[in-house]
Amino acid sequence: TPSTPDEPHVKNVTVRSLFPSESPLGMFVIVNEGEVYFLASSDINAFFYDSAKLYYFKGVLDAIDISINYKFKLAAIGCRSGQVHIWKQDVDSDNWQNSHILNNPNENLSTNNQVVSLQWSVGDERVLAVLWLNGFLNIFSVFGSQIATYDELDADGKAHLGPINWSKDGYSLWLLRKNDVPLKQDEFLVFNFLKSALSSSPILSNQDHVILHSPTTVYIYPKSTFSSSEVEHHQNMHFCNILQVERNYIMKNWPIRLVALNERYRYLAVAGSNGLCLCNYNKNKWKLYVNETQEMSFRCNGGISWWNDILVVASTTNNSHKHSVTFHSLHEKLEDSQILLKLNFPQRICILDVYLDNLLVLTANHKLLVYHLSKSQQANKTTLTTDIILNTSYEEYGWCPYNIISASMSTVQTEVLSPVNDFGLASILINVEGYLMMLQIVSHYEMQSQKNLVKSL
Length: 457
Fold this sequence. Notes:
With 457 residues, this protein is mainly beta. It has helices at 197-200, 233-237, 247-253, 292-295, and strands spanning 15-21, 26-31, 35-40, 53-56, 63-69, 74-79, 84-89, 96-102, 115-120, 127-132, 137-141, 146-150, 159-166, 172-179, 187-192, 195-196, 209-213, 217-222, 241-244, 258-262, 267-271, 277-280, 285-287, 298-307, 310-317, 323-329, 341-345, 349-355, 358-363, 367-378, 381-393, 404-410, 427-432, 435-440, 442-444, 454-456. Helix content is 4%, strand content 48%.
């Protein structure tokens, strides 16, 4: 039965395709000539029509393919007309809303505008690849900006293109081209991409540079490189600092997953599939873990960032699955015995951010914590201490940890309250599924054991 007057009565339909969805839980269904429905269920293992909630995607009449973006709660629907309808699930009501429509930028050049295949990038889900029947391949950002285009993939009209698939790491896009010409073999076209460090590590201690990386190499562009008079790629490359990650590290821990830059000390931190390594990028000198077993024992999750000359790392051990934030001095060797401080957590760390002398941690069990960091130096020994200044839960807001894109501390306020507290914090900005939320920190002037102000949201 329809749940709104705009929906047609669902009976005597022919199901063309089914697309199961893990989040939101349910199933996309293409019926008849291309109408689209979403059946939402509270239990995918016991899926009954009479208990499922039905949503109708109004205006979509010729759908042929659907790709689901779980991180941003988006559904990309490819059509025979060549249009790609992007629908977004509302963060509050769970209803589906039409976000925007993508058109073939080259639709005037050919009548073969039908969508052949489309897929969100694997892992980060930051871009959408769309292949059209007329031989054009386009890459779009989450909310519709065109990033790249490739044309004449079937210039002679004697090949069948598709499907397209992203590699597991999301650095490469594979396209199958079947040739109709006798004795000419089918072939795969592979398109390789660089990623922005912000896509995998949203909070960087330095944002005056643009940092890109391939699976094995980091490219650092100073801010001055991107002036209005310098728009050609070959011009900008002269200003790019290219760092090939130490071979002994990347051979075992391919590909690069996280990158953090410390401009003051001219150091770069890189984390691959396991462990991490440091580089003095002025000298192109790399520092690896002393003990390879220790290097392979943990995986960086949630981010890496710098606090002055100290690297802050959120990680999970591979064997015991213990979760922690560790602090490493760049002046010491990379080994477990040299860790300055270790904070343990019962659940995986989703996001961390360092701002001024404060550390923000969001965990998978819906905890939001802010620590104040302090450092003392005695007899060439560095000692770190932490005080919790905020300990709360974001579960009441209904946010799924996987859908939190980024979180950062700031001095932004919605209204003038009391002066910004001693820690320099006024709010926490959180990106959830593409929506920007601000949690304002209110100071309660309560002294507790002669410590600093107790904070609450």
